[in-house]
Amino acid sequence: MAATCIISIHINKGKTARQCIGDRLDYIMNPKKTDGGILVSTYACSPETAADEFMLFRQEYQQNTGRTQENEVIGYHVRQAFKPDEITPEEANEIGKELASRMTDDQFVYVVATHIDKHHIQYGICKGGSSPSSSYCSPISPAHTQKSSHDGGRTSAIMTAFL
After folding, report:
1. Spatial separation of the C-alpha atoms in residues 65 and 89, rounded to whole Å
2. What mean pLDDT comes out for the span 129-145?
3. Which uninterrupted H or E stretch holds 28?
4. Which residue in 19, 29, 43, 156 has a CA-CA distance of 20 to 30 Å to 51?
5. pTM score, whole prediction
6. 92-101, pLDDT tens digit by residue?
């Protein structure tokens, strides 16, 4: 069974929102960890410009709604690690894409990157905090509590919605 962790991404003291989301994306997409970037998948963005696109959707959301939040969650980082030899990197990446799709109902920009630099396989998902339609801001959809149908039950129910 996989171990799963969800971390909210906030603006750190002394950094901009762009720097914070960029640092997290740089970490998960590190070519040394992702087979030269081969194990990176995206939705509604490209790997090279993901941080800028995350920020563009955030800016559009704020302009369209007039809403800003103190201690704003600018995104989420999901990590899921598997036991050694439990899964291939390609399977992990597919599970990550399916989980990201379910968590977001394909309404939010996200990046999935599978790391192969340790004895175990793990992937990370970075999900933007604002939707590309700029109409709403939501953490994770209720669909995220369902197990992935392609992982043989290895994906545990992630969490109930939090905000």
Report:
1. 40
2. 54
3. helix 17-28
4. 156
5. 0.82
6. 999 999 999 9
